[in-house]
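Researcher: We're teaching a course module on how sequence relates to structure. For the next exercise, students receive a sequence and then see the predicted structure as tokens, so they can try to spot secondary structure elements on their own. Here is the exercise chain.
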Amino acid sequence: MKRINLNLPIIVLMSLLICCMFITNAQTTFIHPGGLHTQADLDRMKSKVAEKEHPWIDGWRLLNGDPLAQNTYKASPQANMNLRQLMSKDAHAAYLNAIRWYVSGDESYAKCAINIFNDYSSVVNQIPSGGNTDIVGLGGIGISELAMAAEIMRIYDGWSGEDFERFKNMMVEYFYPVCHDFLINHNGACIDYYWANWDANNITALIAIGVLCDNQAIYDEGVEYFKNGKGTGSIKHAVYHIHEENLGQWQESGRDQEHAQLGVGLLGTACQIAWNQGLDLFGYDNNRLLAGAEYTAKYNQMQEVPFQFYNNCQPSNHKWPAINGRGRLDDRPVWEMLYNHYVVRQGLSAPNVQRMAELMRPEHGSKDHFGYGTLTFTLEDSKFPPFPVPGMPTELKATAGIGKVFLTWQAPEDYTATGYVIERALGKNGEFQTIALWEDNTYTVYTDKDISNGTIYYYKVAALNQSGTGDFSTVATATPMAPKVLPDNWEIANIGENITGTGHYANVAGSTFIVSGNGDQIGGNKDKATFCYTPVVGGFEITCRISDISGSLSKTGLMIRESLNANSPVVTMTLGEGGGRFARMGYRKSTNAEMSSTLGNTYTWRPAWFRLKRNGDTFTVFESSDGEKWFEVDSVEITMTSQCFAGMAVSSRNSNSKNTTTFDHVTVNMDEN
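Model: And here is the predicted structure for the students to work with:
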């Protein structure tokens, strides 16, 4: 800092001080419209649609068919607007009608949008709270959307100054505190308890409100949190780890892919608004958002990505990227915005982001994102359809099960498939018929359940995209089998009182067992469960894959126990709790002791692989996402007789219902020593 020369005349000193005060307190002049779209953006949409140019016209036609884009829409605000999803729906209707007005010139759409805004500002009269939704935490989604939609309509002459001021007052007085409070207090939870998208939607809301209301302090608060916030949604925490090739692991990648893409889109929206105000958050910290987007896009195109262990105070214990929601193209239309900024505008390489935008083109709408980015964000002519027909899927594998056939394959090397068609025949020379077809998912897994046990089935798979269907794969065959009695040395024990359970077996999918029971506890000082077991002596390991669960789930998984008494020493590795996704090791060290536990991966989606291993009195538990790469959960010392029992156990939420679990790839390997 330069020091003021104290020898200067007093009048000069006063002038310098006044100048410094002016500079310090000066308000940035906000650009309007400058929320999600600028005037240039709106004019580009209008002219490209008028000229019927691709791909803008394709996005426009899709938008026009959205039920929320109709000028007959009526909003449903209430004084305490604690229904965040309803608020978001109303905001989407306002935004889509605003776009239809500007592009078409039809003022009926402008009036519809203005009516939504005026209805809200006339009815809402308190800070939203309570209710049955997470308004403090996720309310920023609808709040930011209202602000972004209103930023467009501020240029409409038919919105009176008085009504506009009332709307802005509502945003600052009633909605801003919701977003501010969450980022400051996180509902009293520890700082990393909530997922990145919870912070991200509130960051976006602050930036959007700041622009709409010309409020520098609110705008700066959002920008500062994006850069340096302590919660998981600030950019350095949301993009948790940078791997080689500039792949940035997203904070929610181990949770599920729907929420990972949600967070990418929310922070991308915050960056887009800031960019329209002359601030480059897209490029912040060496384009960190791009690294996170590339990682997320690559994994959702069925390509493998590295993974760094992630944990938080919940704890989450994520050891691998989650398969839940992987490959979905029917939601999260956020990729055109990112592609057009990083690749088209900035000239950067972002092959996975680019391909994701192309796979989803023309982009549709969504409940959490405005979408239709092919219309609203495309900056220059782009090829449509973007690809030729996709290549041929490879390595098709059909694995027989009990009452089902599991199909897996490798995506075409060009990764241009947006979906697949599966055909099946009932004989080597039989006629193939389509049994499944989807156009909005890149996932390369399918389970055929419409089968007859004992029948030989023939399968082939082809990839498709906007240009058509590619060549079919080579044919794979499988013969599902009906369940039979348990094999030699395997038995069923109903542990505890009033427990009824059954077990069946078939020599398919690497040995498949179906275990069903109504016991309602694996834990405490006594178990109540159905146990399908085999006697073992000395050191060994038992492995299984949990492929299917039906009925009422409490816990299900592997078990080693000293005896068949309910209070026996035991070691377990189970799936259950949290909607059936928590993996947990349990152990009872002595007869009648309370069971202790160690939490495994809390977002373990089926199929789930578990392994228990005994070496002397050391029992070690492992988990895996694919049966190839294993992660240790914990190890415990228990004095247990050399002969014990190992197998699969199931329990139900209550004794009046049953849990039926299918375990396949079951192996028991004895220690040769």
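Model: If you want an answer key for the exercise: The first helix runs from residue 10 to 25. The chain has three domains: 39-376, 394-478, 491-670.
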